[in-house]
Specification:
The protein has 12 helices and 13 strands. The protein is of the alpha+beta class. The strands form 3 sheets. Strands 3, 4, 5, 6, 7, 8, 9, 10 and 11 form a 9-stranded mixed sheet that branches. Strands 1-2 form a two-stranded antiparallel sheet.
Length: 369
């Protein structure tokens, strides 16, 4: 380093030379030992907390997650190599770096195969068949307490209207309109689905949107929201606190409006449709609304893998009848599929329907014989 003095007599650096070949400056063989420390969870939360909290209602704290309570942090389960390839699980939704799927230890790896000596070995009194059919998370993530996005209505106004879980779910899994006194009012219960042969818990996201149907491929392309906003839209239901399109007459008028042109003179849609509650709504040759089931109108399921609990809150901790009874919160739990039907009422189904169980099988599972 070469110094000189300015007009005031203060020293200033005119030239700085760094030679990294010198061991007293940087020893590359041991450099990682000098600069690497265990990153705090906040480094991960900077990107993951906001988005995942809204989509899944995920919490990661000592009050709700047993691993966090025991001193684990993010990289305890998601370690990385020097290239920042973080270990990850395998989830329902498509994500980046799927080549890393299942690179982290599973529940069974730690609690059954003994890969983590600190992990207690599980001892369940029920049949091992349960563990083959039901993922560990299903029972050990029995409920969530943080509100999460549940409905995105992008069709009614051209703006995204968001309803979270508190609007349509409650702490009573059998009656979403009722709140059980004495229990945390923020609790809501996950839906269940089958994933790779096992029952897993999920948080669904219902998206209502207008689209353009390709009659050859049966694929629906969403219409950009700016086009919806600029439309001369028909009036929606009077008295609605939040505008919503639900009656057949409203849907009919709206689909007709989508047959117009945008501000540049281009057609808004060649074959306009509304996607809502698992159904595709379109106008038939007589100009009347008809609806058919369509895969693109189904809810999107997000895997739940955090907020793992232990103790009395775990499903089954109170015995077999907690699930296998006539008021089973496991099989009969209400799951929202449409926030408003033709009369403006929410539509629910029960978990057994989601899991593809027929009524005869359900009767045996509920011990109704």
């Amino acid at each position: 380093m070469k110094f000189s003095q300015d007009e005031s007599g203060n020293s200033k650096a005119d030239e700085v030379t760094v030679n990294y070949a010198k061991k007293d400056i940087a020893d590359f063989e041991n450099l990682h030992l000098q600069i690497v420390k265990r990153p705090p969870d906040e480094n991960c939360w900077f990107c993951h907390a906001g988005a995942d909290g809204r989509r899944r209602g995920r919490q990661w704290n000592s009050e709700r997650d047993i691993h966090k309570a025991k001193g684990f942090d993010c990289i305890s389960c998601h370690p990385s190599d020097k290239e920042h390839n973080f270990a990850k699980g395998d989830t329902l939704q498509q994500t980046v770096r799927e080549d890393l799927n299942s690179s982290m230890h599973s529940c069974e790896d730690c609690h059954y195969r003994g890969r983590d000596k600190r992990a207690p070995r599980y001892k369940h009194p029920f049949s091992p068949r349960h563990l083959k059919l039901i993922a560990c998370q299903t029972c050990h993530i029995p409920f969530q307490t943080a509100a999460a996005d549940l409905v995105y209505d992008c069709a009614s106004t051209g703006w995204t209207i968001v309803f979270d879980t508190s609007r349509f779910l409650s702490n009573d899994p059998l009656d979403p309109k009722r709140s059980i006194p004495g229990i945390d009012a923020n609790i809501w219960y996950p839906a269940l689905t089958k994933w790779k042969g096992r029952i897993v818990p999920v948080k669904s996201l219902i998206v209502i949107y207008s689209g353009d149907l390709d009659l050859k491929t049966n694929v629906v392309k969403p219409i950009p929201l700016w086009k919806i906003r600029e439309l001369k839209k028909p009036p929606l239901g009077k008295g609605d606190v939040v505008p919503k399109m639900n009656s057949l007459e409203e849907i009919k008028d709206f689909l007709k409006a989508l047959n117009g042109n945008d501000q540049f003179g281009n057609p808004v849609a060649a074959h306009p449709v509304l996607m809502k509650g698992g159904f595709l709504y379109q106008l038939n040759q007589k100009g009347e609304v008809e609806k058919t089931k369509h895969e693109q109108a189904e809810a999107v399921d997000f895997s739940l893998s955090h907020n793992v609990m232990s103790g009395p809150d775990v499903i089954g901790a109170r015995g077999c009848k907690e699930c296998h009874s006539k008021k089973s919160p496991f099989f009969l739990r209400k799951v929202l599929v449409d926030p408003y039907d033709e009369k403006g009422k929410p539509v629910y189904i029960e978990n057994w329907e989601r899991l593809g169980i027929d009524k005869e099988k359900l009767s045996s599972l509920l011990m109704d014989q």
